[in-house]
Amino acid sequence: MIDTNHQYRIAYKILLDCYDEYEQGQGWTIYLLDTMKFPFQAEYTGNSKLSIKENQLMTVLELVNSVYASEEELEYFIAMVEVEIGDVLYEVPLADLKMIDADKNTAQAIADWHYHITN
Predict the structure, then answer these.
(1) For 42-89, what is each residue's pLDDT tens digit?
(2) What are the C-alpha distances in Å from 110 to residues 54, 102, 105?
(3) Of 63, 86, 101, 109, most Cβ neighbours within 10 A?
(4) Which domains does the chain show, CATH number per domain?
């Protein structure tokens, strides 16, 4: 049973006809690339314990794991984005970001990803 808009999009738009982790990774990649508009502003939540301070503001530049050399690289998809803090670039899991300033579709895609990984 579909209880939320997130579940509907995930089941019927992102993962429809996906039979394994590789296809699910492709579905998420296509959805995120088609839905998110870069750059946008976000804040780091500190969940991954990177060398970035918690609540650090950053500019999100692009989805970095959108091209894969083999199926093995997509066995477990983790949406990674390239962010800029000052003049330094980092790769950060999308799940570790809180959207600050982005368009409606980007905010929806981030919320869908957060819903997917926490449920």
Answers:
(1) 999 988 877 888 899 999 999 997 655 555 655 567 899 999 999 999
(2) 19, 10, 9
(3) 109
(4) 5-118 (2.30.30.530)
